[in-house]
Design a protein that fits this description.
The protein is of the alpha/beta class. It is about 50% helix and about 15% strand. Helix 2 packs across helix 4 and helix 6 crosses helix 7. The two termini are about 20 Å apart.
Length: about 180
């Protein structure tokens, strides 16, 4: 695990938040940004901004493969940045090349939640193309289980988000990575 302490030879500091949709990546991104002073990048938002269309539109018009290629290109660009926390799309770690790039200069934090918690968090959303026609805990569980081996293999640390506040989760991440307050 990469430590984040002040020092002359300090490596680039990148924290990649991964996990299934609805596990709290965006919420924890904003919390770590405020708590630790790290710059933040929301990968899905960045892709939407750069492409000028929503994720469901990218999937519908260009296909999932194109979206995944856009994620990979963004991971490559991010890998050259310093002092950032990144909220990755739920499928980013499905590609080993993305995991390898993220691990070069950063730590991968896997956020987890139960299928029921995920369902409760995303049930009103229509911005989740993989769930749009399968918005139920059973399907969520199947998809989570299919992705679990890759998520866990990529993770440097795993943090459960069920029944916890964002501040509690961020404090755990901060302590486990030994991040100083307001790192800039």
């Amino acid at each position: 695990m990469r430590k984040y302490r002040e020092g002359k030879d300090m490596p680039k500091r990148q924290i990649y938040l991964t996990g299934f949709m609805g596990t709290g990546k965006s919420t924890i991104l904003n919390c770590l940004h405020q708590l630790c002073g790290l710059r933040k990048i929301e990968m899905d938002e960045q892709i939407v901004q750069e492409q000028g269309m929503s994720i469901p539109d990218i999937f519908a018009q260009k296909g999932e493969e194109t979206f995944r290629n856009l994620e990979t290109e963004l991971v490559k660009r991010i890998s050259h940045m310093d002092n950032i926390v990144v909220s990755c799309g739920g499928g980013t770690v499905m590609r080993q090349c993305n995991v390898e790039e993220m691990k070069k200069n950063g730590t991968i934090v896997l956020l987890t939640a139960t299928p029921q918690t995920v369902y409760e968090r995303v049930k009103g959303s229509h911005n989740r193309p993989l769930l749009e026609k399968n918005m139920n805990p059973q399907y969520i569980e199947q998809l989570m289980e299919a992705r679990r081996p890759k998520y866990e293999a990529a993770a440097d640390i795993i943090v459960k988000t069920d029944g916890r506040t964002a501040k509690e989760i961020c404090q755990e991440i901060k302590e486990r990575l030994e991040i100083n307050d307001n790192t800039k």
